[in-house]
């Protein structure tokens, strides 16, 4: 079996282990050996596994694959820096696909992608590295999703949409077909996006509108 180290001990760590269990129930493939986390001391226990040390120790864990369980609406813009701090190239990261996900054979997935149950990925979709696809989200035909993007549960990215890197698409949000979502954007929970999204914007509501900054 392939040894797997999980980056981060947040809520998505549960998802990683659930996906691994589902894969192993069909064909034993992955052996989780522990976590790397900057906020817990080495030797601590979490979800039945040891914390092996901080993220910077990833490079020394030769013979192990990695997968990220880091990221939320507060930290998503920092994901490129956080993953980069490991000093590990994309070839060391595992893409994990739950057996209950529907992934077109014509879709292209990068490294370090986590695909949870109920996810639908249509034909000719392109997904970058270190993308988190939470349960029940949908990516329509010919859409493009950049690196370090998070799609929260039930989010819908319609066909021919282009989502640039380090974006967070909130739970139940819908992006209309053929739109462009700029890098570092946040789409709030339940929002309906009907127009282009500028880089770094925060949109909420139906129809979604930019959130005005105070001051």
TrEMBL record:
<dbReference type="Pfam" id="PF00132">
    <property type="entry name" value="Hexapep"/>
</dbReference>
<keyword id="KW-0808">Transferase</keyword>
<dbReference type="InterPro" id="IPR020019">
    <property type="entry name" value="AcTrfase_PglD-like"/>
</dbReference>
<dbReference type="InterPro" id="IPR041561">
    <property type="entry name" value="PglD_N"/>
</dbReference>
<dbReference type="InterPro" id="IPR050179">
    <property type="entry name" value="Trans_hexapeptide_repeat"/>
</dbReference>
<feature type="active site" description="Proton acceptor">
    <location>
        <position position="141"/>
    </location>
</feature>
<keyword id="KW-0012">Acyltransferase</keyword>
<dbReference type="InterPro" id="IPR018357">
    <property type="entry name" value="Hexapep_transf_CS"/>
</dbReference>
<dbReference type="GO" id="GO:0016746">
    <property type="term" value="F:acyltransferase activity"/>
</dbReference>
<protein>
    <submittedName>
        <fullName>Acetyltransferase EpsM</fullName>
        <ecNumber>2.3.1.-</ecNumber>
    </submittedName>
</protein>
<dbReference type="InterPro" id="IPR011004">
    <property type="entry name" value="Trimer_LpxA-like_sf"/>
</dbReference>
<comment type="similarity">
    <text>Belongs to the transferase hexapeptide repeat family.</text>
</comment>
<feature type="site" description="Increases basicity of active site His">
    <location>
        <position position="142"/>
    </location>
</feature>
<keyword id="KW-0677">Repeat</keyword>
<dbReference type="InterPro" id="IPR001451">
    <property type="entry name" value="Hexapep"/>
</dbReference>
<dbReference type="Pfam" id="PF17836">
    <property type="entry name" value="PglD_N"/>
</dbReference>
<feature type="binding site">
    <location>
        <position position="71"/>
    </location>
    <ligand>
        <name>substrate</name>
    </ligand>
</feature>
<feature type="domain" description="PglD N-terminal">
    <location>
        <begin position="3"/>
        <end position="71"/>
    </location>
</feature>
């Amino acid at each position: 079996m392939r040894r797997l180290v999980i980056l981060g001990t947040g809520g998505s760590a549960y998802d990683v282990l659930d996906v691994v269990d589902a894969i192993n129930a069909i064909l034993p493939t992955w052996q989780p050996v522990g976590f790397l986390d900057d906020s817990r001391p080495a030797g601590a226990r979490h979800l039945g596994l040891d914390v092996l040390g901080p993220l910077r120790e990833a490079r020394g864990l030769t013979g192990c694959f990695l997968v990220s369980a880091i990221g939320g609406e507060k930290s998503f813009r920092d994901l490129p820096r956080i993953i980069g701090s490991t000093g590990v190239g994309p070839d060391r990261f595992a893409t994990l696909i739950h057996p209950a996900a529907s992934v077109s054979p014509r879709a292209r997935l990068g490294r370090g992608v986590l695909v949870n149950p109920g996810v639908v990925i249509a034909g000719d979709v392109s997904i970058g590295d270190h993308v988190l696809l939470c349960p029940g989200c949908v990516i329509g035909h010919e859409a493009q999703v950049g690196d370090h993007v998070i799609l929260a549960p039930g989010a819908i990215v319609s066909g021919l949409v282009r989502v640039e890197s380090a974006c967070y698409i909130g739970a139940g949000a819908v992006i209309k077909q053929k739109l462009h979502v700029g890098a570092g954007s946040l789409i709030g929970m339940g929002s309906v996006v009907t127009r282009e999204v500028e880089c770094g914007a925060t949109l909420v509501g139906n129809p979604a509108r930019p959130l005005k900054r105070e001051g």
